[in-house]
Amino acid sequence: MYLVTGGTGTLGRLVVPQLVQAGGKVRVLSRRPRSAAGEGAAEGIEFVAGDLDTGQGIDAAVAGAEVIVHCAGGRKGDGDKARTLVRAASRAEGAGAPHLVNISVTGADRVPQDGRLDRAMFGYFGMKLDAERVIAGSGLPWTTLRATQFYDLLLMVARAMARLPVIPAPSGVRFQPVDAGEVAARLAELALGPPSGLVPDLAGPRIYPMADLVRGYLRAAGKRRPVVPVPLPGRAAQAVRDGANLAPERAVGRRTWEEFLAERVGR
Questions:
Q1: Residue among 241, 161, 210, 189 at smallest CA distance from 69
Q2: Cβ-contact 43, 17 below 8 angstroms
Q3: Residue 110 CB partners (closer than 8 Å, separation 6+)
Q4: Which end of the chain is least crowded, N or C, by CB within 10 Å?
Q5: What does the pLDDT profile of the chain (267 residues) look like in tens digits?
Q6: Do 241 and 121 touch, CB atoms closer than 8 A?
Q7: 3-state secondary structure (DSSP) of residue 40
Q8: In this structure, how many other beta carbons lie within 10 angstroms of the beta carbon of residue 238?
Q9: For the purposes of burial, counting CB atoms within 10 Å of the CB of 231, is it exposed (0-12), middle (13-18) or buried (19 or more)?
Q10: Cβ-contact 175, 245 below 8 angstroms
């Protein structure tokens, strides 16, 4: 049986049907309870409520799970969530220790977190590295996949920025975004296989300056806004300008930003 944490989120909801299609029984952990007759019931998916921040419901969620695909995350506390999950998985009774499959971010170990400014702007990288270390040191069999930023996240950011009369774009900052569906397919593949430790990154097919990503969104949405470069201070920002968040040697994603926008935003 598979447990998918964050199974109703951007990534998790795409992982779940792939595991079901592979013939697995899937339990979906989400913070909000779902009715047995509600979403997913027809597909034979079991929904359970639990909170990785407090630990409530997590022991019951991991019981009997042979593989745990950890997609849950947030704006803070990813390391603490991983600790809660690892403790519950280590206590769980069953045929053996569950295989933990974890999603992280490209550059987690390359973006400094030295000061408050670094953490305020790029703290996501530090949180994901914390979670990686918790899982790798858990004593449980594990696999971690690092991926670049999802198109969905950049679309949300671009939409928010487009509400401004003038759009500030971090100068020198580039992204190599990837389609969440492609990441989900790789995570499902890893969940079906043996524990593999830290596997090669999964990155999108193209590298874009942030300003170009925003301009692409504006074109797709039929909007006009001036885009103004803005320098970002701090060591983390410098590392990102140097490409710490990129993986050009792992540009294995196929769907482009332009194709994504044509489907999600295109007029």
A1: 189
A2: yes
A3: 125, 239, 244, 245
A4: C
A5: 999 999 999 999 999 999 999 888 999 998 877 654 444 454 679 999 999 999 999 999 999 999 999 999 877 789 999 999 999 999 886 657 999 999 999 999 999 999 899 999 999 999 999 999 999 999 999 999 999 999 999 999 999 999 999 999 999 999 999 999 999 999 999 999 999 999 999 999 999 999 999 999 999 999 999 999 999 999 999 999 999 999 999 999 999 999 999 999 965
A6: no
A7: coil
A8: 15
A9: exposed
A10: yes
**148 φψ region: left (φ > 0), alpha (ψ -120 to 50), beta (else):** beta
Tokens in use for 160? 């928010």
Structure tokens, 238: 């410098």
Question: Exposed/middle/buried for 77, CB within 10 Å: 0-12, 13-18, 19+?
Answer: middle
The residue whose two tokens read 């590392």 is 239
CA 202 to the chain's CA centroid:
11
* Helix or strand (DSSP H, E) at 21: helix 12-21
Residue with tokens 């490409």: 243
Q: Which amino acid is at 215?
A: R
Angle at the Cα of 183 from the Cα atoms of 180 and 186, rounded to 5 degrees: 155
CA–CA separation, 242 vs 149, rounded Å?
16
User: Is there a contact between 110 and 239 (Cβ–Cβ < 8 Å)?
Assistant: yes
